[in-house]
Amino acid sequence: MRVLVIHGANLNLLGEREPQLYGTQTLAEIDADLLETGRKLGIEVRCVQHNSESAIIDALHAARTEYRGIVLNPGAYTHYSYAIADAIAAIRIPVIEVHLTNIAAREPHRRTSVTASACAGSIVGFGARSYRLALHALREMLEE
Amino acid sequence: MRVLVIHGANLNLLGEREPQLYGTQTLAEIDADLLETGRKLGIEVRCVQHNSESAIIDALHAARTEYRGIVLNPGAYTHYSYAIADAIAAIRIPVIEVHLTNIAAREPHRRTSVTASACAGSIVGFGARSYRLALHALREMLEE
Amino acid sequence: MRVLVIHGANLNLLGEREPQLYGTQTLAEIDADLLETGRKLGIEVRCVQHNSESAIIDALHAARTEYRGIVLNPGAYTHYSYAIADAIAAIRIPVIEVHLTNIAAREPHRRTSVTASACAGSIVGFGARSYRLALHALREMLEE
Amino acid sequence: MRVLVIHGANLNLLGEREPQLYGTQTLAEIDADLLETGRKLGIEVRCVQHNSESAIIDALHAARTEYRGIVLNPGAYTHYSYAIADAIAAIRIPVIEVHLTNIAAREPHRRTSVTASACAGSIVGFGARSYRLALHALREMLEE
Amino acid sequence: MRVLVIHGANLNLLGEREPQLYGTQTLAEIDADLLETGRKLGIEVRCVQHNSESAIIDALHAARTEYRGIVLNPGAYTHYSYAIADAIAAIRIPVIEVHLTNIAAREPHRRTSVTASACAGSIVGFGARSYRLALHALREMLEE
Amino acid sequence: MRVLVIHGANLNLLGEREPQLYGTQTLAEIDADLLETGRKLGIEVRCVQHNSESAIIDALHAARTEYRGIVLNPGAYTHYSYAIADAIAAIRIPVIEVHLTNIAAREPHRRTSVTASACAGSIVGFGARSYRLALHALREMLEE
Amino acid sequence: MRVLVIHGANLNLLGEREPQLYGTQTLAEIDADLLETGRKLGIEVRCVQHNSESAIIDALHAARTEYRGIVLNPGAYTHYSYAIADAIAAIRIPVIEVHLTNIAAREPHRRTSVTASACAGSIVGFGARSYRLALHALREMLEE
Amino acid sequence: MRVLVIHGANLNLLGEREPQLYGTQTLAEIDADLLETGRKLGIEVRCVQHNSESAIIDALHAARTEYRGIVLNPGAYTHYSYAIADAIAAIRIPVIEVHLTNIAAREPHRRTSVTASACAGSIVGFGARSYRLALHALREMLEE
Amino acid sequence: MRVLVIHGANLNLLGEREPQLYGTQTLAEIDADLLETGRKLGIEVRCVQHNSESAIIDALHAARTEYRGIVLNPGAYTHYSYAIADAIAAIRIPVIEVHLTNIAAREPHRRTSVTASACAGSIVGFGARSYRLALHALREMLEE
Amino acid sequence: MRVLVIHGANLNLLGEREPQLYGTQTLAEIDADLLETGRKLGIEVRCVQHNSESAIIDALHAARTEYRGIVLNPGAYTHYSYAIADAIAAIRIPVIEVHLTNIAAREPHRRTSVTASACAGSIVGFGARSYRLALHALREMLEE
Amino acid sequence: MRVLVIHGANLNLLGEREPQLYGTQTLAEIDADLLETGRKLGIEVRCVQHNSESAIIDALHAARTEYRGIVLNPGAYTHYSYAIADAIAAIRIPVIEVHLTNIAAREPHRRTSVTASACAGSIVGFGARSYRLALHALREMLEE
Amino acid sequence: MRVLVIHGANLNLLGEREPQLYGTQTLAEIDADLLETGRKLGIEVRCVQHNSESAIIDALHAARTEYRGIVLNPGAYTHYSYAIADAIAAIRIPVIEVHLTNIAAREPHRRTSVTASACAGSIVGFGARSYRLALHALREMLEE
Predict the structure, then answer these.
(1) Are A133 and A108 in contact (CB under 8 A)?
(2) Which residues lie below 8 Å from residue E110, measured CB to CB, with a gap of 6+?
(3) What residues does K71 pair with on adjacent strands?
(4) Statement: residue I16 has pLDDT above 80
(5) Which CATH number belongs to the domain containing residue K24 in this structure?
(6) I83 vs K53: CB contact, 8 Å cut-off?
(7) Where are the beta strands (DSSP E) in F16-105?
(8) Angle at the Cα of B92 (from B86 to B94), degrees rounded to 5?
(9) What is the pLDDT of residues L58-111, one digit of tens each?
(10) B67 within 8 A of B4, measured Cβ to Cβ
(11) ipTM over 0.90
(12) What per-residue string of b and e applies to I83-96 under the rule 16 or more CB within 10 Å gives b?
């Protein structure tokens, strides 16, 4: 079972970017951790990061025939990219939205996700664990 | 490690209530499943269901000395109970908000959670799996 | 044919409470009148009053197997109790919302009913007659 | 006791118009039924239908000396005709607003009635029964 | 100099309609008064009343070649008739909006005039004097 | 194939009305042009103009058995006539909304069309060409 | 009969200030004209101009015993000075709000008058004639 | 003179709950202090705390015959409980709303009190002193 | 201990201004009463009244070195004067906002206080007693 | 005459993506059809598809010297890309906005087009015919 | 070249007022610095500070003949003084709005400037440097 | 000291694009001017232009180690790109937002900057001078 993890805008700076909010773990460390988690769960995980909205759309499109599910942290695109929302709705495999921080407890504009309604579900606020939980969720969903 | 699962308003009718939305599994079946999941994770799980807002508040208060964490599905109170939100903020143990359905994809009033900002995080849209994932999340959070 | 009449918050003070708005008839008098109306219509009417939101939810749940229909005046819960709205949607028997006063002609917050969309219909503004008309409506609906 | 029933815009197409919403009964059938109901209640019922906002206003004006009460389904004018609302307020006989469907459970723009606050009360969601119940209500109101 | 006075919806009931708001003077009395005022000012006044929105539009259209100016009380159409607003903008003679009551001191929906921006000016709150002042205004405007 | 073209409020003044916005072509010229276009497309075109909202509703109703499709420019009724929107929804033949000017580039109130959602589609901003394009569209739609 | 005319903020620059909007007549010319009009009407007119909100309030207070009525152009204070609105409400003599330009046809913030509801009426859009019409109105009101 | 003090939701955790906001004094200490203040003022004070909305409503109802006045801190119910607001309006003795913290300086949702308009007055932001001041206020109000 | 009482806009007319709302007590009487209350509490009270926003700002600035606390009734400036709010925030002594009437129960614009968040607390709705209670509050706050 | 057709985000999945909404025709089929239509109309059509907002902007910029007009379906960028709107406004050749579905009849966020006001006109709701009609429109516009 | 610098409400307390926001530099120090900067740039700078809205208006009026340009920090008047905005629009010399702090990053009410649209431009967030940059800007603008 | 100037969407068309708004100077001319200004100020300036949102994000990321500060004109991304805002917040060097035109005086959507709150400050409305002033500002900020 293959799963694609897509990290959205500005997540390449994790570890360095506002560490009081996002922690000191780098994206490379998170990805290594997710591959390890994947191995335990019998999931072949691949991780990509894109600052570009259209690169995320292209990745979603391409994944629809190669992967069984997607874990997506759109970054700030969460709050306005109806184009990514349409891409999620356009493909048939489940997409799980994740966020490192509890976006409900931050600035008002972060309280609205325009992509969540197109996703299968969302996991929010657990730091890097949000991704790991999403892998668990996908495995359970796809095994049934 | 003891964890309390609180099911909010109308969840006692699960299995019978709008099954096209909420599925056919009863609350008793979900609770049995959570106890089993808890056993595997080394968590002593207790499950309660309350239609009463104040009973949920009382349960949150009481849990603060007896449990290490809480999994809470407030039901419709999610959308207006600032009193439950205050109760979550008033206690020091982590609370994880869960929802069976993807509330972002339903009626507009379900898109606002007044309780989420007081919680540690939220897991939304995975049916009964939302609860199981919350147990995983709590174990990881509390073990660190 | 059995029908349950549920009076919501503050209706126990009818007759005494703001009589210029709600009239001088007490709830006991209204209930006696409804039993009499029920007898004429061949309906076995039972009346309860609850100030508690969860007591109303519990009454709605319990009624689903014992009654053929429900007449509900949620009182002020009309304007914010999504939990009662969910309870109405969760049961399969018809619920008719009634109000003594014409809520469209009062304060702005009374113009919004969050429960009405889950009901079969509503009858508003006829004083105690609103309840009697609801009994008529239920009998017609259930006889067809 | 004479009562005027005014059917507003597009109600002449009843039976043919969106029957999944409005049923298959024609307006002529509803009117026949209302005359019959009127006979039972000792009410002389007259029914008119107008697609024109000003025809409804004129009918309301004219009725003020010839009828004891009015049953009005303004159709879509419900949602914006302050002119009809003013006409209702300008006459002294009671007007009851009725709707076939539960407008609280339909599109957002149907949730607002600009005419209801000028009426004595409203009966919503019972199909053609809404009119019959309004006749009952008027008889009770006028007999007291 | 010929001037047309157009009274809008429900103004035919003046004198009888909510006299605490609109006074006890009838429309015929107001019109007689306006003809008299016109005579003094050297204005040939003609007065019409229409409950129909399109009759008002037609009157505005027709007046554009026969009259030098228009005094218009749109009644409740003030608050939503963009069609009347367009008719005012479509003709080249000045239109003055008048209201009997101070609409700024009444219900919120009366605070918005969608027609005023297309008019030359407006005179509000002086009872029947509003019309007389509008005649004065037109004479001054047209004499310059 | 017969098609009805309905011109709404104030369009009778075309050519004279705000020519900087609407051009100098009269409605008669546009209608002549549409009949000519119809002949080329094998469509029997009939054109009517109504300032009255209810006349438009009546025309829509009557057309449902006599025409295969309708081209409708509601004029300012576009922005508030839910009654016309209901009439469009009530009939089964396709209605195409057209506007001479690009209403998206004008005043804010013109940006909302309450009728468009009931139509098959809309063609906006091409002057009199909007109508011609609508005839093309109808022929294609009805030929398939 | 003595009447006070109060010109509000920035009106001292009339004639020089945005003449395409406000005309080229200076305030001194308008005042001279108003004194002349007053003489014809038998009104002793006094004119003051204040850029200061509190000076306008003080003038309103002081006028309540010395004048029979007030003509007030609050300038931009129209749109936010609840303190001036309270001052108008606090005194018992009639205040008429006037504006030179048709504020309904200008920027959105100018469409709201917070002072108008406390006034007896308003006259808007007639240039310096607005003031003259207000003197006419006051004389009529006070003579009755 | 007997006065009832009602503490609302989550106030039982005072001293422990977010002490940086609410201070370290416990509810028992506050109540002891209020009894002492009452003794000095000649008021027989009784204090209750309820997390339940309906318990607060019941307490308000019951108090109407036994007490001369009520001091009420509704806790978070302040912001949405129209049912408590109705209960306050339904009884005839004065109710004073108090808050420990300056709710105007906290989260946006705390800026709206739906209960305040039904109260005699409110005292906000003085910590436990808010209650004491309310006792002073009641004594003055009731002595007059 | 010296305390400054600042009465804002229009309060000089107390006793005469809308007595059904504000009572018949004059400002001089209230001030005499406050001096007396101050004497009992060991507070040297000084009272000033300003219709001018900037005079209030200047008084707040000047008071910061001469007084221990301030009691402020901003009058209508409450609802829009961010400049007064900034002045309150700019000084370090506590300011208590008071209102004679229960502003929560009046017009919508009076429900918003832009100054309250900068104050230590507020006391609303007790007539002249609001000021006296504020003196009590200040003494307690400053004595601790 | 050369015309550029730009398909925006997610349109590359046409035929496969939500076929109940967008139909089963692929983009390649639509493009072939447009080239054919172009040939009939004497238009040299070129079609491109971009998921990238900036690629659309670059295409618009480049087209300004090579093409006579543009047909643009921005996809979801319609609803938020002010950058594309600016690009349309920055070039001098006419751009026609098209949509396959009737966006007025879908989710609320699709009812707002931020790009339409910069376009010459728009054609909405005719499936692939929308593009063909736009070619007709461009030919007519450019031939005049 | 003479330039007037106007400091608005509360800026006289700079250095003392909320120094964590506004720094410890006093207004006198800033003014000395601006005179020095002016000397270097060949600008004769004069600085005034007014807490009074009308004093700012008067200063703007007076400056129109004596100065070539104005640097204005309206303080909190920025957010609501349409009267100052009108004064800026009424004079013909350029006005540059400056703010010490980045008002876009503070409370929501500070995000709206009602004066900025009347100014030539604005410089925000650079502390006392904002003023200096404005002098540079004016010199460049006026030299061209 | 090295500073990066980033021009956002559509700025490559400067000189040609809506010259009545943006002037006739090309971007190359502006860049040459900025290099010259940099040389005078001892700043090594590099200028880039990107129509792509993600290219701007990448440029901001890359600049964080190579430049001391950034001057950014996001173009239309100003109004919705939370991703660019996050990128600005993620890096530690100061970013100054500039705009050629006074965006406060244009269309409503241009009045909101979602990026400004993450910047150090902003300079708006001075044409190409906005950039030069930003270089001055950066040098002063970085020299302190």
Answers:
(1) no
(2) E78, E79, E103, E104
(3) K5, K96
(4) yes
(5) 3.40.50.9100
(6) yes
(7) 44-49, 69-73, 95-99
(8) 90
(9) 999 999 999 999 999 999 999 999 999 999 999 989 999 999 999 999 999 999
(10) yes
(11) yes
(12) bbbbbbbbbebbbb
Nearest CB to H109; choose among B54, B58, B82 = B82
**CB pair distance less than 8 Å for B129 and A137:** yes
Report which of B140, L95, L109 is spatially closest to residue J81, judged by C-alpha positions: L109
Of B125, B115, B122, B118, the residue nearest B138 (C-alpha): B122
Which of B13, B80, B109 minimises the CB distance to C90? Answer: B13
- The first and second tokens of residue F89, run together, are 């929804």
Instruction: Tell me the one-letter amino acid at L137.
Output: A
Residues of K with catalytic function: 22, 99
Are chains I and D in contact at 3+ CB pairs closer than 8 Å?
no
CB neighbours (10 Å) of residue B16? 15
- Tens place of pLDDT for every residue, chain G, 144 residues? 899 999 999 999 999 888 888 888 999 999 999 999 999 999 999 999 999 999 999 999 999 999 999 999 999 999 999 999 999 999 989 999 999 999 999 999 999 999 999 999 999 999 999 999 999 999 999 887
Q: Among L16, F100, L97, which Cα is nearest to K124's?
A: L97
K63 CB contacts (<8 Å, ≥6 apart)? K4, K70, K91, K93
- Which site among B50, B54, B113 would you substitute to test the H interface, given the most H Cβ atoms closer than 10 Å to its Cβ? B54
CA distance, residue G140 to nearest chain K CA (Å): 32
- F contacts of D8 (beta carbons < 8 Å): 83
Number of domains into which chain J is organized: 1
Helix (H, G, I), strand (E, B) or coil at K6: strand
How far apart CA D33 and CA D142 sit, in angstroms, is: 21
Q: How far apart are the first and last CA of chain L?
A: 13
- CA atoms lying within 13 Å on the CB side of residue J88: 27
Count the helix, strand and coil residues of chain L and give each as a percent rounded to the nearest 5: 50, 20, 30
CA K61 distance to own-chain centroid? 15
Q: Dig out the tokens for F100 from the structure.
A: 């001479």
Amino acid at C109: H
- What's the one-letter identity of residue H58? D
Cβ <8 Å between L86 and A76: yes
* In the block, residue with structure tokens 């000021």: I131
Distance from CA of F81 to the nearest CA of D (A): 8
| Distance separating alpha carbons of residues J82 and F100, to the nearest angstrom | 24
Which positions in chain F touch J121 (Cβ < 8 Å)?
A: 102, 123-126, 130
K56 CA to centre of own chain: 11
- Domain extent, residue I75, equals 2-143
Q: Find the residue in I nearest to G91 (Cα).
A: I17
Rounded Cα distance between C121 and D122, Å, is 10
Measured between alpha carbons, how far is residue H68 from residues B120, H57, H83, H138 in Å?
Answer: 44, 17, 22, 9
Note the helical H segments in chain K. 19-22, 27-41, 53-66, 82-90, 129-143
Residues of chain B contacting residue A104, judged by C-beta atoms under 8 Å apart: 113, 116-117, 119, 122
| b (16+ CB within 10 A) / e for C69-105 | bbbbbbbbbbbbbbbbbbbbbbbebbbbbbbbbbbbb
Q: H52 to chain B: which residues are within 8 Å by CB?
A: 52-54
The answer to whether the beta carbons of residues C31 and C5 sit under 8 Å apart is: yes
Chain K: give the shortest CA distance to residue L31, in Å.
Answer: 18
| Tally of CA atoms within 13 A in the half-sphere of F94 that contains its CB | 19
- Radius of gyration of chain B, Cα coordinates, nearest whole angstrom: 14
The structure tokens listed for K118 are 């009347």
Interface test with H, best of C6, C12, C17 (most H CBs within 10 A): C17
